[in-house]
Design goal:
The chain is built from 7 helices and 5 strands. It is mainly α. It has 2 domains: 89 residues, Rossmann fold (3-Layer(aba) Sandwich); 73 residues, Orthogonal Bundle (Arc Repressor Mutant, subunit A). α4 packs across α6 and α4 crosses α7. The chain starts with 20 loop residues before the first strand and ends with a strand. 19% of the residues are buried.
Length: 183
């Protein structure tokens, strides 16, 4: 049996972007609540703010707080559609970055404590010999840990591993007792 799919009646395929962009009219909600990342109920949604008030400070504040666009009434339909499309692209990018970070955090959790230390030191630019000296182990052992890190993190190269460490944004620290740890 064949299912019939309803054809979109929305201009520019807007219905495909549902949930990606939220358009707020200042009468409906305060933009401070709507735009602020701390109070958003849909964390990746992009905000387009519409106002009948042409007060410049209101628009500047909305943009500073992360709104994709601030449009004045009466609305230009093309400008609104353009803002929604830009917002949808931004939302997709934010969501993809978040998903990638979650994936990398999962891989990172699979590393042993020693592999995490090696990961941190090699992504800071230390050579295997220097990592060995820092950790009190041989260069050969460091190479073995480094290989395990590359495999577990699914990195093609050291440069890829460095990019991953940037996404993870962790800090390598030395604790009071001389042990190495991650923050």
């Amino acid at each position: 049996m064949r299912r019939s799919h309803r054809r979109s009646t929305a201009p520019y395929g807007i219905d495909e972007l549902a949930g990606a962009v939220v358009v707020f009219d200042e009468v409906v909600v305060s933009f401070v609540v709507a735009v602020s990342p701390e109070t958003r109920t849909v964390p990746f949604a992009s905000i387009v703010f519409i106002s009948g008030n042409s007060e410049l400070s209101l628009g500047m504040h909305a943009m500073r707080e992360g709104a994709v666009d601030f449009l004045e009434k009466p609305l230009d339909e093309e400008a609104l559609v353009g803002s929604i499309i830009r917002g949808a692209e931004l939302t997709r990018k934010r969501f993809a970055e978040h998903a990638q970070r979650i994936e990398l955090e999962g891989r990172f959790r699979e590393l042993t404590p020693r592999e995490r230390e090696v990961f941190a030191l090699i992504t800071r630019g230390l050579l295997n010999k220097q990592v060995g000296a820092e950790l009190g182990t041989t260069e050969r052992t460091v190479k073995a840990h480094r290989e395990h890190v590359m495999i577990k993190m699914r990195a093609d190269s050291l440069a890829g591993l460095v990019r991953m460490s940037g996404i993870l944004e962790f800090q390598f620290t030395r604790t009071q007792s001389g042990q190495h740890g991650m923050n």
